[in-house]
Write a structure and sequence with these properties.
The protein is an alpha+beta fold. 32% of the residues lie in helices and 25% in strands. Strand 2 and strand 3 form a beta hairpin.
Length: 120
Amino acid sequence: MKSTLSKLSVATALVIGLSSCSTLNEMVYRIDIPQGNYLEQRDVDKLRVGMTQEQVAYVLGRPVAQNAFDSDRWVYLYEMNPNSGKIFRKELILDFNAGLLVQMSGDFEEPEEFDTPLDE
């Protein structure tokens, strides 16, 4: 009888102890974690077809993670994992051909003058 009672009390203590972990998890403050390249639309608006990779790097900076297998595609990723709320994620993909910008895609609006080269 004593061993059954002690086993039951140990099991009850474990259940209560483990269930309190999920409650404490909600009460613990976690810092906001930004990762990647933070870009604003006003910076993306400066992009033009025919810009060199150096010109793009001057305007936006280089992507945090570069693709070792495809140097003609730059992917700018930004992700904010806030303490509370929804995860915020934005990306910009730039494609180059022979070192010149030819296309952009992603979560940013294409600039109105994107198709107008800087030379004109």
